[in-house]
Design a protein that fits this description.
Elements lengths: L6 E5 L3 H13 L3 E5 L2 H11 L3 E4 L8 H9 L6 E5 L4 H10 L3 E4 L4 H15 L7 H5 L1 E4 L2 E4 L4 E4 L2 E2 L4 H12 L7 H9 L8 H14 L14 H24 L5 H11 L2 H18 L3 H7 L3 H12 L9 H31 L2 H14 L11 H10 L10 E4 L2 E4 H10 L3 E6 L4 E4 L26 H13 L4 E6 L6 E9 L5 E10 L4 H5 L20
Parallel strand pairs: 1-2, 1-3, 3-4, 4-5
Antiparallel strand pairs: 6-7, 7-8, 8-9, 10-11, 12-13, 12-16, 14-15, 15-16
Length: 543
């Protein structure tokens, strides 16, 4: 591929000046596009994605200041104003409106070219990356992004990027070390009307990785294992499985057993949804988006129950058109939920800070993978966790006196950790203050500590939890219990109100216990040598 040249948009209504500047700029190795008025110029910024704009202030349809203000609502493309207005106030106004430089007419060709080079050089850097401004390149390992020649090389070899692929890599290089949202990249490359359909960006990123990461396991240069990207990758893997399952419903040679196998794999969608709710729902609540989230996951129960019914049947006699259509309808619901979750991802990227994402990353091992084989490795997150690893509280050996005796805190923590039961304590202000986790029935991320308990439950469950706590607080009930009827490992859950000696409500204790190991003794069956390991039920409803 030949070198890609910088593209400069000239916005000028005097034809003679347009011709003069075009000849000068073209002869210096740049590409040129031209607009005679402000409206056309704004359209061309979106369609041609120029690297720099040369702007005359006296346009026939709008003042150059108005053009600048409209442009700066969404774009940071460098702008050099070329104008006959020589008053200091005009220069100040233009620079304040977003211009990067100001040249008064008449001007020399060498001055114009020098200012173009300077503006392009400044545009290629951020505060965090001075290498680009100083050298015209950005390098990491054997990868070099050459901003002057518009090529990307790996070990000295041009990797052969297309124009749009180079623009994407160039943008990532300018913001190296930072997390960029899909919306930000699309807006920078395609303007404010790019929309939210990021499929074209995903395709281009896939092609870029194939060219640059070819022959290597994992990513060396494009780190996409930020916690949000991991959740997106899981959604993509889920949609791939949905597509495979859908193809079976259209294949006349497909068997019922094949479909059932795919549907059983899709049951991990339950843990996937629960994980996203657990990690991201608090952010939506804090920003007044909790009810919007309720709409996104409103159909989850229907999806789970339908999956449970359809995945259990391998009867070829029932593998008819009606069953195939029920599977298609189910897959359509899963696709819709995944598409809606993308709006949650975009919102959280804009509203969660680094500390919040670090908490999400820290909790991934507890919540596990759903449709990927391994958890993400986020180098920056690992480094920050390592720095804070030893900042936790050291439990003292001093005794704690209770009515029935004494414990040290270390002893008490060790005893609680041995109990074959999960305990979660919610204080009188309905905040999660403590939990143990032995059974794995309910996922308990560390980020739940100190959080309002309502933020730890999906919107559809909150009315039940709220009603129960109100009854406990009013003394109308002191406990609530339920069973999760898993076939080989039923689960008993008890919520117990806690009162002090004066009868004042001080909190609620949740107790979760699995009874699989006790079943043979309770039913008179001969105990098995080893009970099968139960699959964790991430939101406590069972299949």
């Amino acid at each position: 591929m030949g070198n890609i040249r910088d593209k400069i948009l000239i916005v000028e209504d005097e034809l003679s000046i347009v011709r003069f500047m075009s000849n000068v700029i073209l002869s210096s190795g740049y590409n040129v596009v031209k607009a005679m008025n402000g409206a056309d110029a704004l359209e061309m910024v979106e369609s041609h994605c120029p690297d720099l704009i040369i702007l005359d202030l006296g346009l026939p349809d709008m003042d150059g200041m108005e053009f600048l203000r409209k442009l700066r609502e969404w774009s940071s493309i460098p702008v050099i104003v070329v104008s006959a207005r020589t008053a200091e106030s005009d220069k100040v106004d233009a620079l304040n409106a977003g211009a990067d430089d100001y040249i008064t007419k008449p001007f020399g060709t060498q001055e114009l070219l020098a200012r173009i080079r300077t503006s392009l050089r400044h545009a290629r850097t951020t505060a965090a990356n001075r290498e680009i401004a100083a050298e015209g390149t950005y390098s990491v390992g054997e990868l070099v992004i050459d901003y002057d020649r518009h090529i990307v090389t790996l070990a000295g070899r041009d990797v052969g990027l297309t124009l749009i692929e180079f623009r994407i890599v160039a943008l990532l290089g300018r913001y190296a070390g930072k997390v960029l949202t899909y919306d930000f990249i699309m807006k920078e490359l395609w303007g404010p009307r790019a929309g939210h359909d990021n499929q074209i960006l995903r395709v281009n990123m896939s092609n870029i990785r194939k060219k640059i990461e070819k022959g290597h396991v994992g990513s060396r240069y494009f780190f996409t294992d930020h916690p949000l990207e991991f959740l997106r990758k899981e959604n993509e893997a889920l949609l791939d499985l949905v597509a495979e399952t859908a193809s079976l419903t259209e294949d006349p040679d497909a068997r019922a057993g094949q479909a059932a196998e795919h549907l059983r794999a899709l049951r991990d969608v339950k843990a996937h949804y629960a994980k996203i709710e657990e990690l991201l729902l608090p952010v939506l609540d804090q920003n007044g988006r909790g009810m919007q989230a309720a709409d996104i996951w409103d159909g989850n129960d229907r999806i789970f129950h339908t999956l449970g019914r359809l995945a259990g049947s391998t009867d070829e006699a029932s593998w008819d058109d009606a069953r195939r259509q029920r599977i298609r309808d189910l897959l359509k619901d899963i696709r819709k939920t995944a598409e809606r979750e993308e709006t949650v991802f975009r919102f959280c990227m804009d509203h969660m800070d680094e500390a919040a994402w670090l908490a999400v990353y820290r909790d991934f091992p507890e919540l596990g993978c759903s449709f990927l084989q391994s958890l993400p490795v986020w180098p920056e997150g690992d480094a920050r966790l390592e720095r804070t690893k030893n900042n936790g509280m050291e439990l003292p050996d001093a005794p704690v006196t209770l009515p029935q005796g004494t414990f040290t805190l270390k002893q008490l923590a060790a005893v609680l950790d041995l109990l074959p039961i999960d305990l979660t304590f919610i204080d009188a202000e309905d905040r999660v203050r403590f939990f143990t986790e032995k059974t794995g029935v309910f996922a308990r991320p560390l980020s739940a500590l100190g959080r309002p308990v309502m933020q730890c439950h999906p919107p559809r469950v909150r009315p039940v939890v709220e009603g129960m706590l109100l009854q406990f607080r009013a003394g109308e009930a002191d406990h609530m219990e339920m069973w999760i009827p898993r076939k080989e490992d039923p689960v008993y859950v008890r919520y117990q109100a806690v009162y002090d000696e004066a009868g004042k409500y001080i909190g609620t204790l949740e107790m979760v216990q699995c009874f699989g190991s006790y079943l043979p003794h309770l039913t008179g069956q001969k105990p098995k040598q080893k009970m099968p390991e139960a699959e964790p039920d991430r939101d406590g409803e069972g299949w």
